[in-house]
Every structure is written in C-alpha cells, then in structure tokens.
Amino acid sequence: MFALMLTSSITTVLLMVTSAALAWVAYEIYSQNKRRSKEIAVDGLLEPPTPVRIPIIGHLHLMGGYEVPYQAFSFLGKKYGDIVKLQLGNVKCVVVNGQKNIKEALVTKGHHFDSRPNFQRYQQLFSGNKENSLAFCDWSDTQKTRRDMLKAHTFPRAFTNNFSSLESLISSGTRSATSEIKPGEVTHLKPIILKHCANIFLSHFCSKHFSTTDENFSEMVENFDEIFYEVNQGYAADFLPFLMPFHRKNLERMNLLAHKIRRFVEDEVVEDRFDDLDVESEPNDYLESLIRNVRGGETPSLPWDTALFALEDILGGHSAVGNFLVKVFAFLVNEPDVQRKIQKEIDEVVGGDREVTIGDRPRMPYTEATVYEAIRLIASPIVPRVANQDSSIDGYRIENGTVLFLNNYDLSMSDQLWEQPGKFLPERFVKEGRLIKPEHFLPFGGGRRSCMGYKMVQLVAFGILGGFLQNFTVLPVDNETYRVPIGSLALTKDTFKFRFARR
Ligand code: HEM
C-alpha cells in the first residue's frame, strides 16, 4: 500500500514537472517569435536565432555528447546559422561561426569585444581578482601597458641581440634535453621537456637558470603544469555558480600552488634585483622592464604585485610550449613519413656537423609547417571574449555583457576550408618552398587581445623539434595509444611515453 502511494505520488510529481517543462518550452517558442519580429523593427538589427532552452541549465545540455563543446557550436552553426544565441546556465552567450564574422569580432569591432568572462573560478585562481591575469582580465590601460612592455621580449626581431641570445638559449636547452634521452628506453618525455622549456623562459625573461636536479625548481615546474591544466578545463560551475562548492578543495589546492610559485619567483628569481637595479640603465630582460616600470622609470607605472602576476603568467607560458611539444611528438609517433621528411630537410639544410638553430627556420618550411599542423589539429579555443557595449556581428544584435565563443575549431577543421582536415599533412602549409598561413587559420586569436606568446611557441617548438629529430626517430611504446586530446593544450601529468632511436 505504502509502495503504491509512493509510486502514485512520484507519478504526480513527474507529471507536474513534465507539464511545467512543456509550458516553459511553449512559452520559450512564443517569446522567441515575439522577440524576433519586435526587435527587427526597432533598430534594424536581427535577434540571433536560439534553440529552445531548459529551465536553470538553459542550453548546457546541447554541449553533451561531443569531445569538445566547439564541436557542438559547429553543429549549432549548421542548424541555426553562423550566429547563435545561447543561455548557458546563468550566462548569456553567443556562438560566432565563420571566418568573416570571427574577424569582425576580433579585429573590425575588436574594441567592442575585448573583455573576458567573469567566471568565479578565474577570480579565485588569481588571488580573488581576475584583473591580475594577463589572459582573463578585461581591457584596461593597465593591460595595454602590460602588453606594450611584453612585445620586445616575446616578439624578438630577427638579427637583434635579443634574438641571438634566445637562439643560443634554445640551442643549449635542446642540447641538454636530448642528452637526457636514453635511446631505446621507455621515456617519460613531459618532465624533461617542461624543465628545459622552463629554463629557456627563465633565462630569456629573467636571466636566471636552474639545475634540472634543483628540487625547488622541479617543484615550481610541476606546480605551473598543474595550474596550467586547471585553467584549461571548462566546468559546468562556470555557468552554474551554485556548483562552485564542489570545486572548493581543488581551488584551495591551486591557490596553494600559486602561493608556492610566488615564493619561488620572489626568493629565487627576483632576489635582490628589485632594490639593486639602476633604473636609469636600459633593461636587460623582461624582469628589469617590470622593475623599472614599478619604480617609476616609465608612466603609467604598475604596482609591484600586478607586475609579479604578469611575470608569473609569462613564465607559465613554458607549460603551454612544453605540453604542446609533447603533443607534437605524440602526433609524430603515428607519422613516420612526416618524421622522415623533417629529417631530410634537416640533413639538407643543416647537415650533421652543427645543431639546428632557430635561425634555420626560413630554410626549413616543412619543419615549421609541422608545428602549424599540430596547432591546427589540437584546435585549442580562442579564450572567450565579452562584449563591453551593445554591438552587433553580421547584423545580429549582441548585448553588452554577452560572452562570445569564437569558433576557431570550425576554422581549423572544416572540410570546406581544408582538404582532408582530419589528416596530419604539414605540406598544406607549404607553397613553392615557403611557409604559408591561410587567412582562416587563427589559432592565436587576433586584434588587441591576441596571443602574446605565439612567437615564443614557434621559436621554441621549432628549435626543440628540430634538435630532437636531428638526433632521434620517435617510436611508440608497446601497448600505448597515441590519441592526442583536442580542444586544449594541456595534458595530464602522467601522459604519453616514447622510445627514441638514435639516427
Ligand atoms: C601553442 C601554444 C599557444 C596557443 C595555441 C595560444 C593561443 C592563444 C589564444 C587563442 C589566445 C586568445 C587570443 C584572443 O583572444 O584573441 C591567447 C592569449 C594569450 N596568450 Fe597564448 N597561446 C599559446 C602559448 C602562449 C605562450 C607560450 C604565451 C607566453 C609566452 C602566451 C601568452 C598569452 C597571453 C599573455 C594571452 C592573453 C592576451 C590578452 O588577453 O591580452 N600564449 N593565446
């Protein structure tokens, strides 16, 4: 009897919930139609099409069943048109598909869409204030200053002292990394690559170098990697803040790691240089540029805390390059032909008597193209933008505060734009012996919030890849599968292992 009563009350509740959901859907369809016709009439802008949504979660359920949400965005683009409005939990969003529309958002109207999402997680990851972060802050004079100061260091020009210093740092880092490889043995490559990338970054930006057996240094590299993995994850809690308590422990751990990194940077990287620097002299590295700015050598000056966050963000770029390189090797394990072509290029251009250097890039388009091809296939997303005012894209209204997902996954993987997009074919980026970059290839975003590290990625990845393949052929390890995760640069700590055969 009790069971029967329970069943019938469950049925009643289910009926009520179903009726409420149906009523909601009917109301949604009705109000969409009403909105559309009304708003075209008011200002000539169209309301972007939007699928029917569900109470509380909005359209979050539409992201299910895909390897990455950007695949869902491509599907929605095909179904509803290039510009699609979504309500993801409590966040109003617009998906922008298509090269022309993405360029409108990044470049033509870049100043309308130069903020970043205000996810609680970003706030908590940067000491309670996402404005401390170079990549997740909104646009401001401070951000302009930070970007301007970085340019000379992250985009060193060929034939300058800065470039040749970076060239020898990459060569010596590559030499040390290859010397740690034991041919034929199962090699956990990620820790080796990360440490050498970290030393290249620390030497280039701060003129500091650490022994790879230094425990504090090794811990710092691991801490950066763990945080890098975290910031690359997307969580439902970003859109449904009531789920944040489930992430509390994890975020506390990230704060602890960030705190340890800060201690390392202050004690072992900056040391006494803040007080000792002669601010009248030309800065020798990025750290000195920051100190000069903070101590009033330039206007507007940054608070020291802000400068330290910027320094840590840039040093953390080594995790991006290191993880990316491990993915490049994981692609190459399945591509012996590509390895042979790179090695042929190395043999023809460099020979065996000297090392590959980043100065060889103009004569080694195939090796450079391999870096591009890996970036294309990983299809990591453009960091979402946010509209700082009411605006439009392709004639569709975008309200102030809307989060924009710019679908570069589609630009990288569309069979309308690439032949055999699923295949690893570096030659697609080489034409008449020169590297080409198609206009629709936008892995580093564009406009005033474009990636500040893409040159470092190209230079360091080229140098290390060239140096490894000059000396070794990369081989699989028994029972390991090499399926490279897409949609993010980050890899887990315990990732692919390889074997290296000496050439
Ligand atoms: C393969 C590796 C990398 C990829 C695919 C990548 C891609 C991107 C993308 C798509 C953005 C957003 C651009 C936009 O909104 O238009 C970005 C922002 C940024 N990247 Fe990278 N990046 C990589 C490595 C690096 C490295 C190594 C550094 C540092 C040396 C770096 C520094 C930055 C910074 C500071 C921003 C924020 C710029 C801003 O918001 O003003 N990136 N990156």
UniProtKB/TrEMBL annotation:
Keywords: Heme, Iron, Metal-binding, Monooxygenase, Oxidoreductase, Signal. PANTHER family: CYTOCHROME P450 307B1, HEME-BINDING MONOOXYGENASE FAMILY. The keyword Oxidoreductase applies. It comes from the Eukaryota. This is Cytochrome P450. Gene3D superfamilies: Cytochrome P450. It comes from Molorchus minor. Belongs to the cytochrome P450 family. Residues 1-23 form the signal peptide. Pfam families: p450 (PF00067). Its cofactor is heme. Transmembrane segments: none annotated.
